[in-house]
Design a protein that fits this description.
Length: 390
Amino acid sequence: MNYKLWLAKRAAEIGVSMVGERVRPPALHTGADVPRNGVDLNEEWLTEVLCREHPGARVVSFSTPGGSVGTSTRAALRVTYNEVGQAAGLPTDLYTKTTAQFSQRLMLGGANVLHGETQFFLTFRPNVKMEAPKGYWGGVDEKSWRSMILMEDIAATKGATFIDATTPLTRGQVEDVLLNMAAYHGVWWEAPQLGILKTPKDHYNNLANLLDFEGRCAVGMERAKAVIPKRLYGQADRLWLGTHKGLEIATDVLPRTLLHGDSHVGQTYITGDGRMGLTDWQATLQGGWAYDFAYFVGSACEPDDRRAWEKDLLALYLEALDEAGGKAPSFDEAWLRYRQTLFYPYSAWAFTIGRAFYQPKMQPEDVCLAIIKRLATAIDDVDGFEALGI
């Protein structure tokens, strides 16, 4: 079926489902039941999903003290247990992410990222010693694209604050994120469990089916003209070719491991004791390590800092990757792969600032410009075109 016709059919089905949910909210009794938001819950359901491994433990009350709306609908959740639950140390400070709105369901469902955080938090996260939130439950209702992830509220449990992407990180902060990255890459290096995840090419194809990716990137170049190096400006077609070649390398050439999938600097946070972590795992993928590495380093470092640090950062990452169980390539090969995989991160942000009037505003303009400047300058500095032979 034509993708647009299929999506129109799904939109109608979702609309009907949401009308039905308002008339008769989904029943919440078992862990198979998916709430419509993070507020309309009940103690029975919370007991089922949070106390299942602790006989006798029960949720006796809960509150939802605040939240926000963006790509998903987010709400803080505070839970009180009976004495058995308290003695077991069950989590009390939680956070929910749901597709409570029609536009959220259509975008995230159409892009096929509804399962990403559930897969990460429940399958992959428990095996890695890293700084990232813990996850406790996740579910998707396939018919309505209703979804929820129930996770740790790191602002409450760790005093975490989220990084403003326009503020450059220190070298130590960049290194800390890369050590986290090496940890999850190493633990899941070429693991058979990765088969449940999409690849970078799959992810791109889902987005390109949903929206005019290439066309909006060309518009984005014009809107970001002031921060793009002169040698790159006007070469939208060539950058687009580099994007495709980089995605092919990350999908078909490099050994596969667990990928964050959207590892830009705005996905990082700092805990109260100074540790750096990664959040927002909805685009979790399987693919080559350089996809995550290039995206993070290219988006996090101001040009002068990156020029001074990038080779040392790569060496640090490769050493940590080996220690975590991965098979690090030689430095020269790794340097080549880094240069080759900077293009998709650039295109993702050119697309974001180049949005059409009917697309949601996913990021503020100042954030887009800061990250585009860093990534475009990196491509120019390391001669990414030469690395790909284009």
